[in-house]
């Protein structure tokens, strides 16, 4: 089967890191900034960065509504860190007027682990992905404060704080798998893309 064509939302954030992982996994990658580019992709990665900026630019570029429509119609999406915030139905500690695309039945709290210099890395058990544990980098990441009926916890820290969730074709992580040579989340995403296209 031909390699799936997937997009990385390229308004702001660590776009290149995601592009690299996806390309290494054999996907065709389009950097998405316009609704026309969005139409060419079968799935979308929303990178880490600053969610309030991604939100603002997505509205300026008139791509926020088209993304919401694609999410409602089942397009697979992987969001990391700011990307998870953009996927969450409810965002706490949002900057004034900040909106998300939504889709994931969760409430996230921005910057829940403190400031940039409180960034940390840890080994995270993600039962669905098996061994070895995921080496997870947290950089001013959000925490998932509440998980609604439609969403599912994929991973939590030992203290119980939820840091990875999925719902149908949507997957969000508080951390940055794209920064550690971790490919299993992107594989999971690409599998959803292949299944959705079938
Ligand atoms: N590394 C990140 O993506 C940080 C997310 C950022 N704190 C935000 O609110 O969007």
Automatic annotation (TrEMBL):
| InterPro entries per the UniProt record, alphabetical | Class_I_gatase-like, PdxT/SNO, PdxT/SNO_CS
Primary gene name: pdxT
Its keywords, alphabetically, are:
Glutamine amidotransferase, Hydrolase, Lyase, Pyridoxal phosphate
Output the Gene Ontology cellular-component terms: cytosol; glutaminase complex
Protein's organism: Pseudoclavibacter terrae
Whether Lyase counts among this entry's keywords is yes
The annotated subunit structure for this chain is: In the presence of PdxS, forms a dodecamer of heterodimers. Only shows activity in the heterodimer.
Q: Does the keyword Lyase apply?
A: yes
Q: What is its EC number?
A: 4.3.3.6, 3.5.1.2
Enumerate the GO terms in the molecular function aspect: glutaminase activity; pyridoxal 5'-phosphate synthase (glutamine hydrolysing) activity
- Quote the function comment for this protein: Catalyzes the hydrolysis of glutamine to glutamate and ammonia as part of the biosynthesis of pyridoxal 5'-phosphate. The resulting ammonia molecule is channeled to the active site of PdxS.
Please identify the protein, giving its name as recorded. Answer: Pyridoxal 5'-phosphate synthase subunit PdxT
The family note in this entry says: Belongs to the glutaminase PdxT/SNO family.
Q: Can you tell me which residues form the catalytic site?
A: 81, 176, 178
Biological-process GO terms, alphabetical: L-glutamine catabolic process; pyridoxal phosphate biosynthetic process; pyridoxine metabolic process
Q: Specify which residues bind L-glutamine according to the UniProt entry for this protein.
A: 49-51, 110, 139-140
The reaction(s) catalysed by this protein are: aldehydo-D-ribose 5-phosphate + D-glyceraldehyde 3-phosphate + L-glutamine = pyridoxal 5'-phosphate + L-glutamate + phosphate + 3 H2O + H(+); L-glutamine + H2O = L-glutamate + NH4(+)
Q: In which pathway does it act?
A: Cofactor biosynthesis; pyridoxal 5'-phosphate biosynthesis
Gene3D superfamilies documented for this protein: 3.40.50.880
